[in-house]
Amino acid sequence: MSSDMGVHMSGILSLPHSQTLTSDTVRHIFTVILVALFFTVLAMVSSAQAIEENATVGSVKTISGTAHVNRNDMLYTAHIGDHLYKGDTLLTAEKSSMGVIFRDDTILSLGSRSEVSIDEFIFDPAHEDVSFMTKVSRGTAQFISGQIAKVAPDKMTVETPLSTIGIRGTRFLIKVD
């Protein structure tokens, strides 16, 4: 074979112009490549987790009795610490309640047999991009407004089957029969 093509002979790789790589050097290069690949994958996973955290609008803080989250037409039993997302619908059973805190520090408490959907939640105050819209379809819901209602009260609304309420206060209760 030509010396320009490289030939593997007893643990030594021949290279053009009399340069050689020992099997130890090849193993070292391979190890460096594997470590670089590992850190690349780790960075990608961390980036995906950061995107996931940005999509999180809030989390479940308290539950008494039975509560569920309907997400993408799938019903999940709610647990303390569960993350909530835009499009989720929160549901409580008879004699049950659920407490939620949103990223802007809004607190939502659902009473017995309640249904509240999170239709929109944007909280990026650094870019002056905030919006919060929920819909109370049944039951009772108490809100203690957070930063969105304070910095842009016109950007926080709560809908019911019969009305849309613009939030200007800090604490309010809605009951839908």
Give structural attributes.
177 residues; three-stranded antiparallel beta sheet; elongated; alpha+beta; 21% helix; 2 helices; twelve-stranded mixed beta sheet
Account of the protein in words:
The chain is of the alpha+beta class. 21% of the residues lie in helices and 46% in strands. The strands form 2 sheets. Strands 4, 5, 6, 7, 8, 9, 10, 11, 12, 13, 14 and 15 form a 12-stranded mixed sheet that branches. The chain has a 3-stranded antiparallel sheet with strand order 1-2-3. The longest helix has 33 residues, at 23-55. The radius of gyration is 28 Å and the shape is elongated. The model is unreliable at 1-9 and 48-53 (pLDDT under 50).
Topology:
Layout: E1 8-9, E2 12-14, E3 20-22, H1 23-55, E4 56-64, E5 67-71, E6 74-77, E7 83-85, E8 89-92, E9 97-102, E10 107-110, E11 115-124, E12 129-144, H2 147-151, E13 156-159, E14 164-166, E15 171-176
Parallel strand pairs: 12-13
Antiparallel strand pairs: 1-2, 2-3, 4-7, 4-9, 5-6, 5-8, 8-11, 9-10, 10-12, 11-12, 12-15, 13-14
Measured by DSSP, the beta-strand proportion falls in over 45%
Give the N-terminus to C-terminus distance in angstroms.
Answer: 88 Å
Largest sheet geometry: 12 strands, mixed
Helix content: 10-25%
Q: What is the oligomeric state here?
A: single chain
Question: Unreliable segments (pLDDT under 50, ≥5 consecutive)?
Answer: 1-9, 48-53
* Rg on CA atoms, Å: 28 Å
**Element-level helix/strand string:** EEEHEEEEEEEEEHEEE
State the helix count.
2
Shape: elongated
Structural class: alpha+beta
**Mean pLDDT metric:** 84
